[in-house]
């Protein structure tokens, strides 16, 4: 069956028909999926009854994987999933929901702020692929915002102002926004800020996008309060309803997004209910600083 994509969001996001992730992708199918990502930036695949190995194989047929070691507060001994996965669930190593005040849960609540995955790494992520294994009885949607449309809608003066700006990103900045301040010396070292351009250009389509994330806590050469106020205004602009697609999860959904062109955030859900979400991630092709805007 040929791959078909139907737009489901306001200006982006498509639902894909004709892909069965239990089967290997042909080169033609992989090319159609990449082309779909270039156009829609978020792709939804419904009813994929796959296991972790099949998710990993599908991911690897689209590019090189980014390992998830060291990006959360989970100790290696309490990993539920292989280190090729980011465990986006609220579950501990015994598959029990974290207690409400568990430090690992509170850190993960940072995902409820608009962000782009791994913008806190020197080479940030390309695509993320998130699969719903179990979902809560209510809430827990994921929202996406189109950073190309948001860029296009800026006035010319703002576009000129931001063109060459470089931001500092760290998971400590996003956690500080939600009142999480306690980091060990080891975590401060591990979460040291990295630099990212504020305007990115897509290598295939040539479209520009705003590279925003709640991890961004400063702009090089700017006083901190001025930078944070400016970035907050940009996020507010970029996440207006006309740029946002809300995904309501069903078990068996796999949603893939391009972190170079979108932001996303999780929405709240009842703390005691399991929400088992498993993410594989494709590595980006280099530091954004080295890439021309
Ligand atoms: C992620 C993420 C949001 C969610 O997987 O990177 O931010 O709704 N997930 O779980
Ligand atoms: Mn994320």
Largest beta sheet, briefly?
Answer: 7 strands, mixed
User: How many structural domains can be distinguished in the coordinates?
Assistant: 1
CATH architecture: 4-Layer Sandwich
What's the CATH H-level superfamily name?
Clavaminate synthase-like
Strand order of the biggest β-sheet: 1-2-3-13-5-15-4
Mean pLDDT: 96
Q: Give the class-level CATH name.
A: Alpha Beta
Assign the structural class, choosing from mainly alpha, mainly beta, alpha/beta, alpha+beta, or little secondary structure: alpha+beta
Approximate shape: globular
Description:
It is a single chain. About 25% of the residues lie in helices and about 25% in strands. It has about 290 residues and is α+β, with helices and mostly antiparallel strands. It has a single domain, classed as Double-stranded beta-helix (4-Layer Sandwich). Strands 1-2-3-13-5-15-4 form a seven-stranded mixed sheet, with helices on one face. Strands 12-6-14 form a three-stranded antiparallel sheet. The protein is globular, with a radius of gyration of 18 Å. Bound molecules: N-oxalylglycine and manganese (II) ion (MN).
């Amino acid at each position: 069956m040929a791959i078909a994509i139907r737009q489901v969001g306001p200006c982006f996001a498509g639902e894909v028909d004709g892909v069965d992730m239990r089967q290997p992708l042909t080169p033609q199918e992989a090319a159609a999926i990449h082309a779909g990502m270039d156009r829609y930036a978020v792709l939804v695949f419904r009813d994929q009854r796959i296991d972790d190995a099949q998710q990993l194989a599908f991911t690897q047929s689209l590019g090189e994987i980014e390992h998830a070691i060291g990006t959360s507060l989970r100790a290696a001994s309490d990993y539920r999933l292989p280190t090729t996965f980011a465990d986006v669930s609220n579950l501990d190593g015994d598959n029990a929901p974290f207690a409400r005040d568990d430090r690992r849960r509170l850190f993960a609540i940072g995902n409820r702020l608009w962000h782009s995955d791994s913008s806190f790494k020197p080479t940030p992520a390309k695509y993320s692929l998130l699969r719903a294994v179990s979902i809560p009885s209510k809430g827990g949607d994921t929202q996406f915002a189109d950073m190309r449309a948001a860029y296009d809608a800026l006035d010319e003066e703002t576009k000129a102002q931001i063109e060459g700006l470089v931001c500092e990103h760290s998971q400590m900045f996003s956690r500080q926004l939600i009142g999480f301040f306690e980091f060990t010396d080891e975590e401060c070292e591990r979460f040291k800020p990295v630099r990212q351009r504020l305007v990115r250009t897509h290598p295939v389509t040539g479209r520009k996008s705003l590279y925003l994330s709640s991890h961004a806590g400063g702009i090089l050469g700017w006083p901190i309060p001025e930078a944070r106020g400016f970035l907050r205004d940009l996020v507010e602009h970029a996440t207006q309803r006309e740029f946002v697609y809300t995904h309501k999860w069903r078990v068996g959904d796999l949603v893939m997004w391009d972190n170079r062109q979108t932001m996303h955030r999780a929405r709240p859900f009842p703390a005691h209910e399991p929400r088992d979400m498993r993410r594989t991630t494709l590595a980006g092709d280099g530091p954004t600083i080295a890439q021309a805007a």
